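ARCHIVE CARD
Drawer: 12
Card no.: 0347
Subject: one protein chain, sequence and derived structure
Cross-reference: see card 0346
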Amino acid sequence: MPAAIRYVAIGDSFTEGVGDEMPDGSLRGWADLVAQGLADAAGAPVAYANLAIRGRLLGPILAEQLEPALALGPTLVSFNGGGNDMLRPGTDIDWIIAETERALRRILDAGAEPLLLAGANPTAGLPGGARVRAKGDALVSAATGVAARLGIRFADNWSDAELAGRQYWSPDRLHLAPVGHHRVAANVLAALGREVPSDWVVDAGATPRPTRGEQLRYTREHVVPWIRRRLTGRSSGDGRTAKHPDWVLVDPR
């Protein structure tokens, strides 16, 4: 690929871009925005691939996405995983961290720069959020140590207090809204030492607390289907493929 920057993103719905739907039904998301931001900063095209698929646990992310990502010959690989593991009982934080470090070392060995991400913290609006928040806090603390030990960049969106606001989240309260994806992209570009495009909106006004009726509708439309999928062993990503399994060129604006 002729592009000097070749960026591959791997992960789950957070990286796929769920919540940032375009008018034609396609997804954008923070990784797409980062690719555009890198192209704008460089003043040259960036090669971009995105292998992330919604609903994926960490194990399948590593088994299905890591080696195909490296086979593309990237210069930069963003990695996020473990969010779906945290939503399930019996989360093995030590295993997640060990596998994350192994993946990051594999990226380094392949000659690419790894960028570790912590996802944004959705727990303020989730049922049982305190339990998930404790797991997330432990995971981010351990991930911070891994990044420091390996000497790699870490974009810690979990600790971004602004992103906890309801205005940054989509109606399902689990995936970011477009403005949330923009804020994460800004955090990532900052971690990479790049300028954030001046025309991006990365802050939003406050959103009122949901009414009782809105809370009941949320439970019916989002919580119950999620529980049903867990009980039947299905995933929101079943049958889906990556949106950009091979390079696409992102031109500077």
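Annotation on reverse: The radius of gyration is 17 Å. Helices lie at 13-16, 30-42, 58-71, 83-86, 93-109, 129-150, 178-191, 212-232.
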